[in-house]
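User: Please predict the structure of the protein below. I'd like the answer in structure-token form so I can feed it into my own downstream comparison script.

Assistant: Understood. Taking the following sequence of 264 residues as input:
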Amino acid sequence: MKLKKVKNSKSPVYELISTLVIALVLAGAIRTILFQPFWIPTGSMKPNLLVGDFLFVNKFSYGFSRYSCPFSICPIRDRIFFSEPKRGDIVVFRHPKSGKDYIKRVIGLPGDKVRLLEGKLYINESMLVRQELPDFIEIKLEQGAMKTIPQCANEPVPFGDENCYKYQSLEQLDNGKSYKILDLGQNIGDNTPDFIIGEGEYFFLGDNRDNSLDSRFDRQFGGVGLVPKEYLIGKASLILFSSSGSSIFYFWTWRKDRFFKVIR
């Protein structure tokens, strides 16, 4: 008996649309479960993260919770830790009061005592080593979609001037990790009381020290205070690309030196 060949009733257009839908669903699932894209809107993490950096956050760096994995995917209510954040990690977390996503550097771990004195950072009574670097210089123009204007240590600086600078240093932690920080010399948050970091809490600082509302400042004044571990989303791991324009879609403004840059 000769079998008849059954024609495929599905058109090429249908097959293409089906493939695209499946791809989008898979991409959405990967984004929801494993990674979260994050766009840097302000300059609080300069010079290490710039306004317009588009990066990936590894949501399983430390574990997962209702902020890093929704209930519909992960039926849990409490954070399950795989590992603890390390001092010096750049982390995305949910602001405990406003609910907005923030990105800062972990400085204080549970059990630590942290304070700043005349701009110098002390952890458990030891002052961190700091090496002065050449000034960080940029153009005083609107940056990113929020059109933020950079602050300058040499104010007054005319709008559009190419000589807007900040003091730059290399700060080294007790674990050997080092990173660049900026300062305007304005004494903003340069002197703090002792912060005793409780169990399950973390102390965060922005690398742009005079332009960051971080753990130095109470939440009622716009800061983040000490951040409980359940608000952590994940570790910033990779800059995919970076735009110096007002939109990440303006590809002609993408910075050529920041494609696939590992965040350290």
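That's the full token string. The mean pLDDT is 85.
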